[in-house]
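Request: Have a read of the protein record below and say how the chain folds.
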Amino acid sequence: MFFAEQASKRVGIAHEPAGAGLLRETEVTTLQKRRKPRAKRVDWTPMGKTQHQARVPTKSARAAFLILLGLACVGVLISITGIGLVDDAYISLRYARNFARGMGLVYNLGERVDGYTSFLWTFGIGCLAWFSLSPVWMALLAGLLFALMTVLYLVHRNPWRKDLGWMPAFVLLFSPCFVFWSGSGLETAFFTFLLAVAVLRFIRECRSIEKCRAGESLLPPHFTSGVLLGLACLTRMEGVLLLTVNLATLIILLRRGKIQAWLSVVWHLVSFGTVFGVWFLWHWWYYSHPFPNTYYCKVWGGGYELWLRGLRHVTEFSLATICLPVFSVLSFVLSRDWRERYLAATILVLIGGVVRVGGDHFALYRFLVPVLPLLALLVPLWFQRLLAPRSREDESRSPSRPLPSAPLQDSFSFKAAFPRWRSTAAFALYLVISATVCLLSFENHRSARLILEGTRGWAKTGRWFAFQTPPDESIATQAIGAIGYYSERSIIDILGLVDEHIAHLPVRVGRGFPGHEKHDAVYTLSRNPTYIVLGHSGRVPLKRDRQTVVDIIFQGSDFLRGEQEIIASPGFDERYEFESIALGDGTFIECFRLRDR
């Protein structure tokens, strides 16, 4: 008997003493007698329907309802602001098409100037164009796809997803900025996705440090987040700012274990430096300059005026979104959750980068779209914190006595003692008001439609030059996107985005219109462009004479300063004659043509 019991213990079979089963049955019978009989539950069901059909909607039904509601929001925003490629997107598309044709990453054949800003986006579109796919459609569909992936990833990998549910996704779906720029053809949606993935991956790696120590993780600590951050920097270079936040967070969280801390820092730097460093050295060798040409054109040489303009741009964004960035300040100052403070620090650093470059002249705040997913994680936290009370367990926890592993655990949770319908209702009302204010203030929706209208006009202008002019003629214009892409002619950029000479002029930027402050009329005319196409071409609904057009240009703002300087140059009237060319849809191209041709 002894050997049988030992054998049964080895295989996991528990032996009970004699009579134990009888005692257990007796106890169960006694408990059943003491328990009061439950009242019979009566469920009301409509006539003709069974009880199963009258149940509360399932999770899939609620998810379907939220998806339809989100699509409806997106449809409303698209109907108000419109959707389509903007003119700057065609600059990258021309680079991508030339790359697919074997000409290299150049805008004009033989001129190595980096005017596309986003290497990874341009290279990816170029690879797709190599398979004879349309760069225009690929840019549009890829932007919408990455925007959708950002929304889904935000819900799936949300560190507080059990408490917040669908709320962060609707911050993006109710945002006209996010919806408009996702379909613009630019790298905005792609950079937003990579940045959100890199940030949330970094948080997950910080929470799984114990697995890395035990050797359960296949990859070194913080290796993947470094690679993702490097890819984000290949899309837009301001992602480098996030590296400082990551390193500071690693040192703070792992200050007790110096060996592990330094390993995490080293692997993060190695993975990031391998991806970003290789590209940076190639870029320096290929274009002879370390930074993109757009940096020298828009930022290089800026003084305090540039900072003030960027600060004004961020202030307008805050007012248009009902002080949305203020939540990041509150989280950074008041929160005791390291994840929340890390997100807040990331947002503040990225906003500081936008202030540094002086903001942007486009409507709906293109440079601030990448911070929206991170803000979408913080805003619902504050609504639940203010309107949903803490549970008794959280209230009994003393802030002065944190848990033993305080750096890697939450200092409090948001599990409410009763349903959070008040915070949900307030959050929904906030989203509606925020979207309404963003659409109505500063004429953002009108400006967005003007951007798309101008791009369509320049696309028609470019097609006319492609079919009606010889291939050896050149065009000087400040709208180099759609005109350059569809005309396939040699383009002389008046504003220097794809011109190295104008971009490196020693001009103090920050006082004029963003991106339109550097120009050199003498240099532009010395290149003898065949046509000088004016910026309003393709949108003019009537035929006008030369004097009327010149008066309109000189009465314009700093946006037309480059055209004003060219027209006022000595000897310009002797060399160029004015032409108003009718298009098939009733609009006109207004330009100056070289008389020698």
About this structure: Residues 7-33, 39-56, 391-419 have pLDDT under 50 and may be disordered.
